[in-house]
Amino acid sequence: MSVRITRAGTEVVLDHNELANKGKRTHAEIDSYLQELDDARGDKPSLKDKFRELKDKDDEQDRQLDAVKSDVSTFQTRLNTLSSTVSAAEAKNQTQDLRLSQVEQKNAQQDQAILKLQSDVSSNPNAEVVAARRDRDGRTFPSLKARLDDMQGKIGTGGGGGNNGGASSSSFDLQTPINILLNTFRDAETHNRSAYRQNNMYVDVFSDSSGIDTEKSSSFGIINGAVLPGVHDTNIIMSSPTEPAPYHVSSSSETSGYPGWLGINGVLTDYYYSNGVTPPAEGHWWQIDFSIPKIITKLAIKPLRISSGQYSLASFTLQGSHDDTNWTDIYVGSHVNTDSETEHNFTNTTAYRYYRMAKLRSHRSTNTVIYTGWHEIKFYEIIDAVTLVTKAVNVGRSPNKIITTAEYTDAVTFDLTLDGTTWVNNIDLNKLLDTSSLKGTNLQLRANIPATGSLNSLGFTWYDDSMLVGMPGKEEGGNDRSSTKPLVDVVAATNILRNAYRTLEGANQGASVRHNLYADAFVNASGIDASKSESYRIGNGKFVKSAGAIYSWQTLGVQTASSVGDYNNNNPSYRPFKANGTTPTYSVEKIADDNATVSPGGNSDYWLQSGTSADLFMKWVTPVEVSKIILWMNGSYGGNHNYCDHQIFVKNPSSSKWEAVTPRINLATITDKGVHGDGSWHYPLNLDYPINEVKVTVWNKSSYMTVTEIQILQASDKNPVMVSKPIPLAKAPTHLLLDAEYEGNASIDLSFDGGTTFTTGFPLNQLVDLNTFLPGNSLVIRANLSDKAILNSIGCIWYDKDTLPTYTDTVGGSSGGNVPGMIQVEKYGVIASPVSPLEVNITIPYNSDYKLPPIEVLKFAPGEQNYTHEIASFSSNEASNFDHDHYMELDGTLRLKTDYLIEMTEDVVLPSGNRVYSLSLDVNHFSRIEKIKVN
Q1: How far is CA 709 from CA 550, 589, 614, 662, 712, in A?
Q2: For residues 402 and 397, what is the distance between their CA atoms, to the nearest angstrom?
Q3: In principle, which of 171, 535, 548, 766 could form an S-S bond with 718, CB 3.0–4.6 Å?
Q4: Residue 220, Ramachandran bin (φ over 0: left; ψ between -120 and 50: alpha; else beta)
Q5: What tens digit of pLDDT does each residue of 793-846 get?
Q6: Where does residue 92 rank: exposed (0-12), middle (13-18), buried (19+ CB within 10 A)?
Q7: How far apart are CA 704 and CA 609, in angstroms?
Q8: With contact defined as beta carbons under 8 Å apart, do 234 and 383 qualify?
Q9: Closest C-alpha to 736, from 781, 677, 796
Q10: Cα-trace Rg, the chain
């Protein structure tokens, strides 16, 4: 049996007298505490019992001593010795009793602290979460003390005199954006995210090099998310002789199906193999063009183990060149005939663009020069120091203020530019930099990393005048004028929304309404009004333009080719379009014959070929915009015409290079028909250029490769429009902050009457006063996207007259005075101030399910207006990740519980058979009890 107690804690706020008198206790309370201590002691003896036991021992020893004295005088010496032993034992007992007393006193103090903690929590229901956190590796974020130290003098201080006094710009809260950057580093590491921008913030934790301007940076290595000098694997993984750009692999000869690039593609089962033709005078060679000079000082080679290893590499000469013509010998290596990867270390101080494995010899007993190869080769380069330049981030307009933070080792310095030309050298981190004198909108950072240093993460946030939030200030002189102003940190509110998007993405959850917050990361279409939205599709968390009609290959004048020909014709050259039925069986023209019935089962309407892999090409005269490619394969005819692994490329007309638009798709089985179940694979594209060439690479999973049809689709002729489902509001809002993550151009409209009347061009990331808007309590968001735009997420936070945090701004005054600043910080019963800050940590156990950082719970009370500042949110299913007492609950926020489940104890069975139950309830822990329900 249990009893549920429900109470409302939201109205419980102790005044300052009550808070100041927390240390006072009544006799009844003290007696109850003593009784709890006795209960906690259990069966352990009290200090009084210990002393009584010691006295009894002493009395018994005295009686024994008197008996010995009276009966055996001859044993006086032994009695003296015995007496000394007894005295030592008494002293030891007294020491132990003293220690026990100290332990009991300490336990009593801890019990009192726990009681005080529970009592204070029960009387302080208004809590907030701030970003002072500790990660799993023990690194500590700026603590509460550091935050309070920084805020000291910033709240309740400021300039001005006379009639023009006001809030000072020095009241900017610096620590919050720094904490947000640090927290975003941890989130990016957890999700292995590449460099990315969120509104006015940019972070890079170097999961890859996508955020680095490689042309302006020196050579660098990235190891486990750190940029650092030293010897590093160049990590070249080729997918063709020239891909990825700008690398290029070539050789003097290669066996069909085993080209040179397979020897450096990251797959240990593939291999490069020379074809046995007569080699050049010095032997066959294999080379790589790195595009930029590198100092290579180490090789690692996984040998080729066919025919008992007789074709394995036995010896080679590594050469370097600046021009691909004049070669310099760097290292002569011999390679043992083994299955294991062998490393070759050597001295090289010259940076070469081209490296050649020359004078190749095998372990064959004869003709060692004609056949050889390897499974995989790795090149390692040495880097003395690193100059790393980030890619330019367009900040929209010249920012007035910038905050930069980084995590690094040794003496790394940082420079900044807004135009790519004028650099401000050796900038200060974690400070609000005034950049109003700089011109430009493309922000870049340059990190100068010494030979012994490393860079783990880098981020910055920027502000213009509309983003900076003034805090209450010190006023002096003049006539008094006062006004009530909103007190909302726009940057923090924006990042609350960004955290909500990441939470939805991580939980694979659709649009969500939580208290006064709405967020949609487009995990699905649950938040979209499909009847009013236009020309859209959702995929991979993106709202984008939908595909239109299928292009006619005949109209485009397509030509097709196959790198290995087809089953009846090994000619790899291009062939003009032929309609279905006019082409030979299994010909490559089948992949682009505009066959209206693209269904498995036929025995002739597909290209077919044996072998390991093939490239299928389509090209036409005039480039067109393509929004989707559909690949069809026929795996149902015959027992070995199976589906293929594949990858799709398009040729960029400006660079004339193939660019992958899909990764290699490895099918689960040879009968895998794809997610659509019909042998089709759909790949939406978002290219910023038209194309006139497509390449599809297929890999054999059985005896034959088959492709039925390749289709390319136009974009829709309408731009996408996202209209949300109506969002119910409890009260008509007075203020609202709107946020969106998007690429390209977009404008956002808002309606508060369910979608009847819209206000167009609603500004983003500003606290907008809605007093001039038509009132209503049914919010609808409409996003109008440009042709190529991508909407990643959208959300808003709204406030009504009861929930909007405000402060009273008093301007002027004959004698001046302080606007009330931070009066106190209450944290689990610990009272702190900017003058005497205190800190208490809430720990989280380290386990494999670690998801969330430790948190600190605070309540800020500036002036007479309480306001909270939410940094993180918590769902009920995350509660198990936190250590918290039973007075706290996680259900969207971290708050004081209002419902309690208390187990009852059976006391007695009545003659009637009914039972009497009781429960222990400390009424001092609850402000009031509204309802008791017996289950």
Answers
A1: 12, 9, 15, 18, 10
A2: 13
A3: 535
A4: beta
A5: 999 999 888 777 765 554 443 333 333 333 233 333 334 444 444 444 444 444
A6: exposed
A7: 6
A8: no
A9: 796
A10: 38
Helix (H) or strand (E) holding 358: strand 352-362
Q: Identify which of 399, 404, 516 has the alpha carbon closest to the alpha carbon of residue 468.
A: 399
pLDDT exceeds 80 at position 620: yes
Output the CA–CA distances (angstroms, integers) from residue 879 to 127, 519, 925, in the order listed.
16, 22, 22
Which pair of tokens denotes residue 193?
Answer: 């995210």
The pLDDT value recorded for residue 372 is: 86
Q: What is the DSSP-derived secondary structure letter of residue 775?
A: P
d(CA 769, CA 779): 15
CA distance 265 to 238: 5
How confident is the model over 218-254, as pLDDT tens digits? 878 888 888 888 888 888 999 999 998 889 999 998 8
CA angle, residues 120, 121, 123, in degrees to nearest 5: 65
Query: Which tokens hold the place of 415?
Result: 């420079």
Q: Which DSSP symbol is given to 278? A: P
pTM, entire model = 0.40
CB 511 within 8 A of CB 724: yes
Of residues 718, 737, 720, the one with CA closest to residue 791: 720
Q: What span, in angstroms and rounded, lies between the C-alpha atoms of 141 and 135? A: 8
String of DSSP letters for 353-407? EEEEEEEEEES-SS-TTTS-EEEEEEEEEEES-EEEEBPPEE-SS--SEEEEEEE
- Tell which residue, 341, 340, 334, has the closest CA to residue 363: 334
82: enclosing H helix or E strand: helix 76-122
Structure tokens belonging to residue 777? 């309590």
CA angle, corner 77, sides to 71 and 83, nearest 5?
85
Tell me the C-alpha distance between 657 and 653, whole Å.
Answer: 8
* 844-853 core/surface letters (b: 16 or more CB in 10 A; e: else): beeeeeeeeb
Q: Is the Cα torsion angle 20, 25, 29, 32 positive or negative in sign? A: positive
For 117-150, give the DSSP string.
HHHHHHT----EEES--B-TT--B---HHHHHHH
Could you give the 3-state DSSP secondary structure of residue 94? helix
For residues 882 and 846, what is the distance between their CA atoms, to the nearest angstrom? Answer: 10
Checking if the pLDDT of 589 tops 70, the result is yes
Q: How confident is the model at residue 456 (pLDDT cuts 50, 70, 90)?
A: very high
Q: How far apart are CA 776 and CA 39, in angstroms?
A: 58
The yes-or-no verdict on residue 610 having pLDDT over 70 is yes
User: What three-state secondary structure class fits 721?
Assistant: strand
3-state secondary structure of 267: coil
Task: Name residue 592's amino acid.
Answer: A
CA distance 840 to 450: 38
Length of the chain, in residues: 935
Look up residue 284 and give its DSSP letter.
-
Continuous segment of H or E residues that includes residue 631: strand 628-632
Helix (H), strand (E) counts: the chain: 8, 61
3-state secondary structure 480-541: CEEEEEECCCHHHHHHHHHHHHHHHHHHCCCCEEECCEEEECCCCCCCECCCCCECEEEECC
DSSP state letter for 880 = G
Q: Identify the sign of the CA torsion 135, 137, 138, 140.
A: negative
**Residue (of 306, 299, 300) closest to 272 by Cα position:** 306
Q: Which two tokens stand for residue 491?
A: 């940057």
Query: In the chain, what is the greatest distance between 2 CA atoms, to the nearest angstrom?
Result: 134
Q: Cα(260)–Cα(676) distance, rounded to whole angstroms?
A: 36
Report how far residue 256's alpha carbon sits from residue 265's, in angstroms, rounded to the nearest whole number.
16
How far is it, in rounded angstroms, from Cα 850 to Cα 135? 10
Q: Which residue has the tokens 């007309």?
A: 653
Residue type, 626: V
CA 526 to chain centre: 24
CB 930 within 8 A of CB 1: no
Kindly state the tokens that stand for 892: 């969207």
**What CA–CA distance (Å, rounded) separates 523 from 298?**
46
Grouping H, G, I as helix, E, B as strand and the rest as coil, residue 849 is coil
